[in-house]
Specification:
4 copies of one chain form a homotetramer. Chain A is an alpha/beta fold. The first copy, chain A, folds into 2 domains: 49 residues, Roll (Vcp-like ATPase, Chain A, domain 2); 186 residues, Rossmann fold. The first copy, chain A, has 7 helices and 14 strands. An 8-stranded mixed β-sheet of chain A has the order 9-8-7-10-11-14-12-13, with helices on both faces. In chain A, α6 links the parallel β10 and β11. In chain A, α2 crosses α3 and α6 packs parallel to α7. Chain A is globular and about 65 Å long. The first copy, chain A, starts with a strand and ends with a strand. At the A-B interface, β6, α1, α2, β11 and α7 of A face β6, α1, α2, β11 and α7 of B.
Chain lengths: 243, 243, 243, 243
């Protein structure tokens, strides 16, 4: 069974059913049959509520092997591609696995490639923690070395790419994608936008790159205004579609 | 079976299996057993490819009863709340139904309220067209008049609100939501942000309002730059969570 | 004569000609006839270059009595109103005096009101430091209590307002301004935009409120991208013009 | 004497004193001694008000030889560099001359280079129209071919560059600028940012590139929100300073 979030005030811990939580608030044994919403107590009588991990919780609690994709960007990928139930998704590189987990929770079957074996192992653990290990196949390796076999298999509905050589996959996107399918490339830097677009060439349509600036609004007694803190850049998202 | 998108160059038509398409390219009978990717021909020999409707296609082809939520905003709701498989969502007002359809395609069971009976009828047709009529229950009525019965039922994982009186629902959100569940309010205007936040009061946590500015990047021979066309405001998204 | 900026590496000090600078690098007497570009030495032989204070230096070295207007916003006021040589400007409230100094350096004669006597004194010192005390008349008082006398005087070309009750001045703007003159209101909060616009009523034209988001671009070996640090909100600028 | 703006409702015409205005509202002779604020009448009795041309009016009424710099960007250049009274400015390329006129009106002496002889002629006429022909020296030619002589002359306080080969001037900026002086490069495209920054090298400090997104706010009965129309990109502004 997927992990649960144990919450006490501002404190949050992730444990699988059957596991033990040890903190200065005491020891808590998570029942095998824990349900979301259950109130549990440590041996010192301190209460914890068991919650289901939602998307943003995965972002917070997944073990990180780099800067994970932010919930807003995972959402934008789903919004602009419609990725969801019944879709077969090819993802690279896995990284922390936030996007793969979001897609799987939305019903997609995800095959994801991560070149770093240690990172891939962490991602596999994260998929178990997120309860989506049955729908995410984390493969250790460089996706560009496996394109021939992937092309040979059933086609994909969506490709989600976040690697240094995404362009090499984009070039093969027309072979990898089903008709009407989308490829998405996430890239922090402007320079890679051009490479992606050139790789999309004339074989893909609706090629569009978006930059998304998201700001918090501050609402106080004094008034309402955009945050003075500012919100920084994450990455550009380029989308293209197979006709 | 859900509708298919019939594509010929730039032209796109939506039809259900068994229906007929009449255009100047000829008449095309959509087979009952049409599969995505099938190439079909009109009686004049003009080819159409049958595609599965993806999220952005729903946005384009749903019959509109107002300005529908844009794919990016539907995605942001999913990203920031993690709404997806296994979730029970309470949505109001339905409008064109884009958000409800996105959520259902991501695996959620959606109950959505629309005050205008004619709009509700259109939304029901749109849910059939999107292949999600089994997971979206479009109810004609004002959600604020049904809160007592809704509170009495099993709790919801996510509330998605886009009505003039969203604040009235937000006030009841602690009763409607499961622990860790999210409420989202979409509002075009600044003034309603404050009402939402005040309604969230002290009973909900992580109250945050985001403004999202999305721009296209232009990539040409001359260079790369943000679009000179500009991208306009859609709406503010406020999120809050039940502890 | 106006003050000079004494620069040694990252260190900057402001002194008037004839004054003394004491630091751990030694004592330096600033000659009465110091010229911009002069290299001066402390008694320990440490070199300092004498620079003219430019606009951004005023922002850095003015004594602050609150958050001063940022150089970019002072520039936007000048850009959108064309305030400069030969203009008579009515400014309120003075605050640190950055905007008044910018306008005076661009050739305007500025009358500025500051309600706090201590702040007004600091502003006067800042105008001397900026070499514009002959073109900026810092008056202690509430501009709204002096409108009748101000209306009676020659009209103003530009009004620049940054106070809690700017709307009260905007209402009188048609009387205060010359034909074609501009009024500008700086306000951090959304709520005051509406008040300003309502005060502008039908008597002023070209009523426009701008929000300006400014971001730094990061250019590194890895690539070019908007800063991940983000740049926060400063204020909204509303402009209106007398027909 | 500088030109005046003749305003009748929404109609605006620019004429020099002594010139004639012919419209369907009748013929109007502009007196040699016209003053700002004067009400004039055509021979048909239609009234026109004579206004001083302000910065934004120059932007509207200058004859265009390309997309002129927008008032906001001219303002940002002045804000970030403090360019104004007493400054010597080297500008290239002149284009329509909006920036040169803004700087001159703020009290700067401007030397500006325009490679296209016809454009330079238009710019000269625009400077007369703006009443700044005595402070703006429009030279026909490529500034990069004149750097040696410019370096030999007195140094400049500010360099403002908006040409395809701005980087070649930036490389010589340390020789051209006085200590504490600024160089500014306006460039629509990302690619030129890097060239500018590399040219600034280690000899200039405070190298910063800004992108400025400006949006209008819509205030109506329904509420307040950023404009749905969007405001497009103009250009990146890179600033650097001589130590």
């Amino acid at each position: 069974m997927e992990a649960v979030l144990l919450v006490h005030g501002d404190r949050e811990y992730v444990r699988h059913p059957g596991e033990e939580l040890q903190t200065d608030l005491g020891v808590l044994d998570v029942p095998e049959d824990v349900s979301h919403g259950d109130e549990l107590e440590t041996h010192l009588g301190e209460p914890f509520v068991a919650r289901r991990l939602r998307g943003p919780d995965l972002f917070e609690h997944f073990e990180r092997t780099g800067a994970p994709m932010m919930p807003r960007d995972a959402g934008l990928v789903m919004g602009h591609t419609g990725a969801g139930g019944g879709d077969r998704v090819l993802d690279a590189g896995t990284g922390t696995g936030v996007l793969a987990a979001y897609l799987a929770r939305a019903g997609a079957e995800v095959t994801t490639y991560e070149t770093d074996p240690a990172f891939a192992d962490v991602a596999r653990e994260n998929m178990i923690l997120g309860g989506v290990d049955d729908r995410v196949d984390v493969r250790t390796g460089d996706v560009t070395e496996h394109l021939d076999e992937l092309v040979g298999a059933d086609s994909f509905d969506v490709l989600t790419l976040d690697t240094g050589d995404s362009a090499a996959v984009v070039e093969r996107a027309p072979e990898l994608l089903t008709t009407g399918g989308f490829v998405t490339v996430y890239s922090p830097f402007v320079e890679s936008i051009r490479k992606t677009i050139e790789a999309a060439g004339g074989d893909l349509t609706d090629v569009r790159t978006f930059e998304t600036i998201q700001r918090r609004m501050d609402v106080s007694e004094r008034g309402t205004r955009p945050s003075t803190a500012g919100v920084g850049h994450t990455g550009y998202l380029t989308f293209a579609r197979k006709e």
